[in-house]
Design a protein that fits this description.
The chain is mostly helical and about 170 residues long. The protein is built from six helices and two strands, in the order αββααααα.
């Protein structure tokens, strides 16, 4: 009897924490916000590496120290907005067993492509910095391009996912 009460208690709508009763949905929302802030910190860190790589090339286009701040801010925004798509979009695309196109696939592909592009730019930047390499401007432009395209795809996917109406099943 005690076990069944604990199980039903764990699925209840509220939690007892000390003398406070906290709604379960607010706990989930708080955890989700914490997760998104962590993703933004990862994006800013990746942007720091990309920006440091761009500034390091003294004869290049990106000689200003502001480029580091801009890449960090853009990385934080893109990872915050774009990586963690809403659960409704993800559930809808998984549960859709018909071959009918509903639009959520494009959002997921854009998010995945953006994450991949930004990760490639960050990995190349870290390797360039750690190995202290001097590279041609073409490769540096490639890293900057991967970062901009990847981060932009993440932002676009996140904005599209938040504006995406999940259609109701026809059953």
């Amino acid at each position: 009897m005690k076990t069944s009460n604990e199980i039903s208690n764990s699925f209840s709508e509220t939690r007892q924490v000390g003398n406070f009763r906290i709604a379960r949905s607010s706990l989930i929302k708080s955890a989700h916000l914490l997760e998104r802030i962590g993703l933004a910190a990862i994006g800013a860190t990746c942007g720091l590496y990309v920006g440091a790589t761009l500034v390091r090339q003294k004869d290049g286009l990106f000689e200003s120290g502001w480029i580091v701040l801009l890449t960090m801010l853009y990385g934080a925004v893109s990872f915050y907005v774009g990586i963690d798509l809403s659960r409704a979009v993800a559930r809808r695309s998984i549960s859709n067993v018909s071959e009918e196109y509903n639009g959520s696939e494009a959002i997921e592909i854009m998010s995945a492509g953006g994450t991949f592009g930004a990760a490639i730019a960050a990995a190349l930047s870290v390797s360039i910095l750690v190995l202290d390499q001097s590279l041609p401007d073409g490769l540096i432009v490639f890293v900057a391009g991967c970062w901009m395209v990847g981060s932009s795809l993440q932002v676009a996917a996140g904005v599209m996912a938040r504006g995406y109406d999940v259609p109701m099943d026809k059953e």
